[in-house]
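Protein entry
_____________
===
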Amino acid sequence: MEKKLVVKMINNCFKQYYETDAIPISEQELVHLINRILKWKEDEPAADLYEIVNDVIYEYLTN
């Protein structure tokens, strides 16, 4: 369940930066982002998932 939520949040976050509904990354990169987000949330349970997703996507796009 949480993985599906993270994918939906990633999609919404990319929509802030791109006008298309498609995610401009490969499936392998998406899996990597999901794992990174879930690991961060596991390490810091009090952290807001929305902020984690935004931070990870922003970092991905700026690097």
Helices lie at 2-17, 27-43, 49-62. The chain has a mean pLDDT of 91.
